[in-house]
Amino acid sequence: MRVSSRLGSAAGGPRPPTPLPLSLPRLKNLELTAVEGSDVHVRMLAAPVNPSDINMIQGNYGLLPKLPAVGGNEGIGQVVAVGSSVSRLKPGDWVIPASAGLGTWRTEAVFSEEALIGIPKDIPLQSAATLGVNPCTAYRMLVDFEQLQPGDSVIQNASNSGVGQAVIQIASALRLKTINVVRDRPDIQKLTDRLKNLGADYVLTEEELRIPETKTIFKDVPLPRLALNCVGGKSSTELLRHLAPGGTMVTYGGMAKQPVTASVSLLIFKDLRLRGFWLSQWKKNHSSDEFKELILTLCDLIRQGQLTAPACSEVPLQDYQQALEASVKPFVSSKQILTM
């Protein structure tokens, strides 16, 4: 009998997690199936609570599992045993989900071999637990939409999010400049210092981005050709205003629950492009080998000290309610990690 949450999750661009009757998810004992053929018995070690996980519970995400479902899309587990036809994994290996909706908020489970990707064990546990969604999203957005060169700049909102922190670090490794926009808050200086310690070149509040003096930044760095939007509404409009002609804004979330609005003049006279990104769709369009290559690239950055896990708060699985409630509070910069 194994402890497991009964609600599922998927990865990709989140909407803002709004309060739910979070008593709906519950812990339940489930029987493990026998390990046969291509089966892999996995003991889960840690799994984060992402905004997309809450969206799944709310029923307003792009992928919804059949109910009842186990919660959690992301996490790190260790192989306990394998079936007779398993060739890529062995007991002791670390594994992460290969695609969305695996259900990681549980102590252990039996999965098929193709549902898992083996990763190196020489990276920190929190980095491994948060590897498969936010850093992957950050890397793909930085390299897939504009051919950026060292010295080019990128502007983003929600810069304190998991993706935002990964963007700062990966961009720094690629020798790109970042202009990072966050919501004003009581501890804004503490947040600014933390993001700059990660490699952020500039950190601005939403209000500071709107004042004319902000343009002095672009005396030192070129106008950004890439904007990364996880908010929508006025925030995304301000990102567009600061893009270089011919630049691209990529939207991967909508935390403000407001549409992206682009003026006709920006589209015509600056020839700006509006794109979207969803990691789940990227995985559908690419092979598992390509995803594994992406994971190994990120692991190299972690080993080199160029990519760390976001600020995390570890919560025992049995206290999942505490983690869910914390994940929907405003101005929380610490990712909740369920530990098994």
TrEMBL record:
<dbReference type="InterPro" id="IPR036291">
    <property type="entry name" value="NAD(P)-bd_dom_sf"/>
</dbReference>
<keyword id="KW-0521">NADP</keyword>
<comment type="similarity">
    <text>Belongs to the zinc-containing alcohol dehydrogenase family. Quinone oxidoreductase subfamily.</text>
</comment>
<dbReference type="Pfam" id="PF00107">
    <property type="entry name" value="ADH_zinc_N"/>
</dbReference>
<protein>
    <recommendedName>
        <fullName>Enoyl-[acyl-carrier-protein] reductase, mitochondrial</fullName>
        <ecNumber>1.3.1.104</ecNumber>
    </recommendedName>
</protein>
<dbReference type="InterPro" id="IPR013154">
    <property type="entry name" value="ADH-like_N"/>
</dbReference>
<feature type="domain" description="Enoyl reductase (ER)">
    <location>
        <begin position="25"/>
        <end position="338"/>
    </location>
</feature>
<keyword id="KW-0809">Transit peptide</keyword>
<keyword id="KW-0560">Oxidoreductase</keyword>
<keyword id="KW-0276">Fatty acid metabolism</keyword>
<feature type="region of interest" description="Disordered">
    <location>
        <begin position="1"/>
        <end position="23"/>
    </location>
</feature>
<keyword id="KW-0496">Mitochondrion</keyword>
<keyword id="KW-0275">Fatty acid biosynthesis</keyword>
<dbReference type="InterPro" id="IPR013149">
    <property type="entry name" value="ADH-like_C"/>
</dbReference>
<dbReference type="InterPro" id="IPR020843">
    <property type="entry name" value="ER"/>
</dbReference>
<keyword id="KW-0444">Lipid biosynthesis</keyword>
<dbReference type="InterPro" id="IPR011032">
    <property type="entry name" value="GroES-like_sf"/>
</dbReference>
<dbReference type="Pfam" id="PF08240">
    <property type="entry name" value="ADH_N"/>
</dbReference>
<dbReference type="InterPro" id="IPR051034">
    <property type="entry name" value="Mito_Enoyl-ACP_Reductase"/>
</dbReference>
<keyword id="KW-0443">Lipid metabolism</keyword>
